[in-house]
Amino acid sequence: MAHLATKRYTYGSQLAILMGLFCLGFLASQLINAFALSNYIKVGATEKEMMTKIFVPENANLLRILQFISVLFMFFIPTLLYAKICHWKPFQHVGFKKELPLLPLTLAVLIIFSAMPLVGALRDLTMHLPLSEWMKTRILESKENYFKEVVVIGRMNSFGEYLLSMFIIAVLPGLFEELFFRGGLQNLFTRWFKDPVAAILLSAFIFSAFHLEFSDFLGRFLLGIVLGYVFYQTGNLWINIIMHAAFNGFSVTGLYMVSRAHEKIDMSKLDDNFPFYLVAIMVLVMGGLHFYFDKVMGTLHTQPGEEIIFSGYEQHINPFAEIEQEAINKEDEPNNTNTDHE
Q: Is the separation of the CB atoms in 270 and 169 below 8 Å?
């Protein structure tokens, strides 16, 4: 559920505030990372040389800390500050609801898992697109660097390291990224455009592009659409956080099982490869889950794109809020003593 912006901030101003805070957080995280990695980076070293020096098992804990700092400064802090600056009820605005309905949560997790084969198929499709050799080379390099980072950060020689990797690779991205991309950007775009489809697609595109892992761009774009759809239907960020964390946690658990079997992790086998028939079946399953999810949600919930007038909050101070006629009539009823601000 979205709430009215304070101080008459326009939608463009809200976006400028959010992205300005993001840029400041990004610069802060880069400075911290550069300082922490200064002993590993030589002047004039190529990107490949730096990656070879940094992404080694001995640096696992350092990279985990830097990963935490990066997502904290880029996504978590900026979004909360933006919500605090621009909105009357910041935590409720971004989707931190008190309740966590079990059935919608279960369906949402099943939906995200059913999308996994299609994500793998889209990853394969990317390399078959009519791209230049230079572009294909860059995609393969970004894929290799991404897998190197995952293997190092996800190194697990004990159950304790498995839990730590789950926290760094699954839980934190689930919390921080969903807060920024769904609770912040998509929420703003939905209210601004008055078109939830456009808002979901744009936020999903930005979500995929931000990861800078081009071989998985289409797959991550699909995940962004699924996550955006669920958030629009529920307005409950906790559901999105658990979905995201569960999806990432599946990969972490796979890495842990390989490490416990004392097998060397082969980066070329980290891709999710599914046969065509399984992809087709899971697409049908995903469609059925979406249909049932829509039926469960119905029209009982306020969509997160709507801006709501609350009792005790002056209607005229927000010139761009849309107020349903029913809400206006309710406010005009005599002897209305409702003072609930929720």
A: no
If phi > 0 it is left, if psi is from -120 to 50 it is alpha, else beta; for residue 194 that is left
pLDDT at 207: 95
Alpha helical stretches, state H, 154-195? 159-165, 172-178, 187-193
Strands (E), the chain: 2-3, 307-308
Residues 174 and 243: their CA atoms lie apart, in Å, by 8
d(CA 258, CA 260): 5
In whole angstroms, give the CA distance from residue 82 to residue 134: 39
Q: What pLDDT digit, counting tens, does each position of 41-73 carry?
A: 665 556 666 666 677 777 777 888 888 999 999
Place of tokens 């239907």: 233
> What burial letters (b/e) apply to 175-212, b meaning 16+ CB within 10 Å?
bbbbbbbbbbbbbbbbbbeeebeebbbbbbebbbebee
Residue 2 bridge partners (DSSP): 307
157 C-beta neighbours (distance < 10 Å), count:
13
Q: Where are the domains of the chain?
A: 99-329
Cα–Cα nearest to 244, from 189, 159, 166, 147: 166
pTM of the model: 0.81
User: Are residues 307 and 3 in contact, defined by beta-carbon separation less than 8 angstroms?
Assistant: yes
Residue 4 DSSP symbol? P
Q: Which of 203, 220, 209 is nearest to 304 (CA)?
A: 203
**Which residues have C-beta within 8 Å of that of residue 168, sequence separation ≥ 6?**
64, 67, 68, 153
* Alpha carbons 176 and 171: distance in angstroms, whole number: 9
Query: Do 164 and 67 contact (CB within 8 A), yes or no?
Result: no
Mean pLDDT value of segment 211-221: 82
